[in-house]
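User: I'm writing a tutorial on reading structure tokens. Could you give me a worked example: one chain, its sequence, then its tokens, then a sentence or two explaining what the tokens reveal?
Assistant: Sure. Here is the example chain.
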Amino acid sequence: MPTLGYTVGRDIAVDINTPTGKLRIPKIMSFDSKPQVSTHKITPLNGITDELQIPVGWNGTIAAERMDATLDDFWAKWEDNYYNGIDQPRGTITETITEANGTVSVYRYEGVSFHLTDAGNKQGEKTVNQTLSWTANRRKKVN
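And here are its predicted structure tokens:
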């Protein structure tokens, strides 16, 4: 539940669906999402500028602590498919948020492409952090 009316990380659940099924990452540490907007400025003769904003998708990252080969295997399969000429369909991400008032908000990112941007730095006595980046065509409110 939220703390003092603030949304905290534990109020968010993320479900990742790839073309090959659900991607179950054991320890997701953070989920980041940002809307992408294309802008176009128009300045008429009166000198007052309007700025058009056009949504062009979303992008973000999922940071994880490596506990098994989930992300490495996912990316190995993606690479294997690429080199074998197999098309890579897109997936979805569903973000579920428990709000301060107890209601639940659900958003679905559609047309998601995934990219393992960091397989992790391996050092003695340290955990391995991995990063899965993604881009989506759009985000829709489901609930």
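What the tokens reveal: The domain at 9-141 is CATH 2.30.110 (Pnp Oxidase; Chain A). The radius of gyration is 19 Å.
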